[in-house]
Structures are given as C-alpha cells and as structure tokens.
C-alpha cells in the first residue's frame, strides 16, 4: 500500500485513453492536510468548516477562522481549496449552539438556513474566507441551497462582508469563485437558473440521494432504499452534468458515491471530470482510472441511463468493471 502511495502521488488521474480526471480531497481538520498531500490530492474540493466549529468550546472569532483557513490554503501551496460555509444541523451539532429540538432535523433548520438566520455569524465566516483568499486560490461554497432567493441572499451577505472589510481596511481577495452544493432535488430542477448566479456546482450526493429517495442516510432500517444507482438519482446527476457543461460551469462531485468503483465508473461515463473524496481513496481511484476507458465508460453510462432497474444497473456496471480491470 505504501509503495502504491509513492507511485501515485505525483501522477495525475487519467483514464486509459488519456482523459484527465481531477481528484481532490474532502477535508475537515488541519490534520487532514498532510494526509491529503501524502495521497496526492489536487487541492481540496470540499473543506467542511463545521468540523473546527464542532471541536471548540465557543464560536471561533474572525481572526481564528482566518488563521485556520489560511493554514489550509497555504498548506496546499497554490492548489485550489473550496471552503464550504457552515453546514450544521441534521446530524451535526455544535456543543455551544443548541438549536430547538426538531421532529425532522434533516428536513429542518440546518446548513445555510441556520447561516442565513444568524447573519452575524455568517458574515464573520464569509469575511474570514475572503481574507484567506489573499493567500491562494480559494473558492466559496454554499450548502443546502434550494432556491434562487437563498443564493441571492448569500451573495448579499458577501457584499456586506466586503464592504465591512473595506471599511476596516482589512485585506481580502476581490475575486473568489462562488459555488452551490446541488444536494436538494429542487436545486437539480433549478440548476440552469442557479448556474447564472454562480461559477461552479458541487454535487453532494450523500444528501441528494436521501432527499430524492426519502431515505435517511443514517437510518439502517431504510438502508436498502438509499440507493446511489437508483435510476432517478442517475438521471438527476446526468441532468446537472449537462447543465454545467452547456453553461461552462465547474462541476465537482464530493459525495461518497465518488469513491465506490462501481458508481465511479458510471459517473466518469456521464462526463464528470472532477471528484472530491476522502484522501485515502485517491491513490486507488487513480489506479482504477488507468483501467477505465472514457469512451467505454460513456457507452456504459448510456446503457445504464436507459435501464429502469437498479439491480440491473449494478450488475451491468460490475460486468463492465471486470472487463476493464
Ligand atoms: C453531501 O451531502 O454529499 C456532502 C458532500 O456533504 P455532507 O456529507 O457534508 O453533507
Ligand atoms: Mg450535504
């Protein structure tokens, strides 16, 4: 395994027919930087900033957040780092910020909804991200967007943050690419309109699957309903990929289905060329890529998109993987 790490660290991800596929890291803590670098990540596709918030006794102030983000950005030495704003609620709680008890936390007050209702906290985080943007190529990502109003409200907070920093005479990056997570079915339907507001999409399949199929991602009782190869899920992913391509927007898939070989094959076939995953999966995904022909994957993906049954899709992809591997 160690030998493999060495072998793949310096290599770019490429299919057997030479198509470049970018593999970035999902990170949460400072200690993840080293792991990502050792595994040869192309920067960070998803920095889950709630992790540092969760391990503290109170909300970190702006400077603390700035220093933290700056360390991450500098750690990746010029490679892009996508910083996602706070995504608490659902299954992620902060010890010092107790939201009201909810019957349905995943359908409730979570993620960007919490941020938009706590503008000071939100603006402070955005200021810290803008400040960190001076030290390398930072992108800003908003989670759980389900309407145009929400992304517009987020952009209004960015404008406030900029004005604030300017007034204070604090340095910050003027141009930061903005993105939205596509992880609520409404965002799939609205992708063409959302694309006009942002520079890139991040496909959050962990949540997208649970919301599309009404199956809690953490509930073992409905495990069998939580199916990444459900034809409706594949259709949605295909739709978003098409929109991104047509409107020339970036697209990175950062859900767990990017690190399973079977689903990975289908996603490469759909035309997805950027993934973000837990770092330990990166070297083995590069190895897998070398055995996949983009052309064959594309043909396979056309086949499965015409199938109505997930079992059949899985069996088909399994056969395709065996053929190539
Ligand atoms: C997702 O929902 O797919 C995702 C990447 O974000 P998280 O797992 O943090 O909700
Ligand atoms: Mg999510």
The ordered string of helix (H) and strand (E) elements is HEHEHHEHHEHEHHEHHEHEHHH
Largest beta sheet, briefly? 8 strands, parallel
Unreliable residue runs: none
Percentage beta strand = 5-15%
Give the tally of β-strands.
8
Put simply, the count of helices is: 15
Helix content: 40-55%
Radius of gyration: 20 Å
* Approximate shape: globular
The set of bound ligands, ions and cofactors reads: phosphoenolpyruvate, magnesium ion
Strand order of the largest sheet: 7-6-5-4-3-2-1-8
* Distance between the amino and carboxyl termini: 18 Å
Mean pLDDT: 95
Protein name: phosphoenolpyruvate--protein phosphotransferase
Family: Belongs to the PEP-utilizing enzyme family.
Subcellular location: Cytoplasm
Account of the protein in words:
- The chain is α/β, with parallel strands linked by helices.
- Helix content is 49%, strand content 12%.
- The chain is built from 15 helices and eight strands.
- An eight-stranded parallel β-sheet has the order 7-6-5-4-3-2-1-8.
- Strand 1, helix 2 and strand 2 (44-48) form a beta-alpha-beta unit.
- The longest helix is centred in the middle third of the chain and has 21 residues, at 148-168.
- The chain is globular.
- The mean pLDDT is 95.
- The structure holds phosphoenolpyruvate and magnesium ion (MG).
- Phosphoenolpyruvate (PEP) binds at residues 46, 48, 87, 183, 204-207, 254-255.
